Description:
alpha/beta, Aminopeptidase, Alpha-Beta Plaits, 6-stranded mixed sheet, 4-stranded antiparallel sheet
Amino acid sequence: MGDSAIIEQQIEQEKDKLVEMARAIHKNPEVGGQEFFALDLITKYLANQGFKVWRGIGGLKTAFMASFGEEGFHIGFCSEYDALPEIGHGCGHNLVGIAGVAAGVALAKSLGDMPGRVSIIGTPNEEDEGAKVELVRTGVFDDVDAAMMFHPGCSTCFYVESLACRDYNLTFHGRSVHASTEPWEGRNALEGVIQTFNGINALRQHLKDDVRIHGVISEGGLAPNVIPNRAAADFIIRARDSSYLNEVVEKVVACARGAATATGTTLEVTESGYPYDAMVSNRVMADLFQESLKESGYNLESSYDEGLGSMDMGKVSRVTPSIQPLVAITEQWVPGHTHEFSALCDTDEVYEIMLTVG
Ligand SMILES: [Zn+2]
Ligand SMILES: [Zn+2]
């Protein structure tokens, strides 16, 4: 029996339990940092499979490491299990999580006398903060020789690239007064935010094509008859190259400073979340994954071409050879981060793809 046939057989044996776990995580969506149900479910299962389990690694309560074997080459399968507020598993992390578990368990059981260590690394809170960045910083990936994870989508791509990314909160402080009786005494924090958006929109013409800047007004004042003394915007800024991204961040902050000067308000700049690096996919691993997926009979044809996002796996790819292939789970385009995509991630056909990916 060939290596991939042995792996397939191991997954086949665990199939019902694996699908049951993916369904249960889908049914109990938990946002980043609160994934205690998923943590409990997965780590108990892995402990029963003979894995040594450490919870709360890297100082993150819902992160874990589960390892089988000790000596030799160390391969890490990343498992994500966080959901989106109100939408649930609109990013399909129930599939990401259990495909990683399936791959790890099947490989561990196939080791026989061969030396090697197989780990499943529970990497929570991908949507909000990107816990892998913190797990890299705290050394969790230091002795991992290769790391991998898959992500479901509407297209398939083996050699995945991503954008480096940084998150900012811009808060303006002004002075509240009655908006009709003495507006000349006021300093309008909301105007600071609006002029920041205008400045950034004027800046776009002078930025490279791969840059993405997108923001929302997170605080915009309390009542129209009160000049807002506080207003804020959250921005995400992305680019292929981290050093160019830093230049763009400076320009965005300069827009906000200019807006503060123009409106007589003061500005507070806070970086939120961890900065993401762009993904560097390992060519050898990506090619092997592609070959194996083809051998396994996966044959979904999708012509949809997804644009680039950002992923915390980018940071992992800077410290150990890594891949995060994108695998289509539908032939039609279904927008990500929606209830529709969430529903798709809880179907028999898609659970079958999850096992195949494993
Ligand atoms: Zn997502
Ligand atoms: Zn995702």
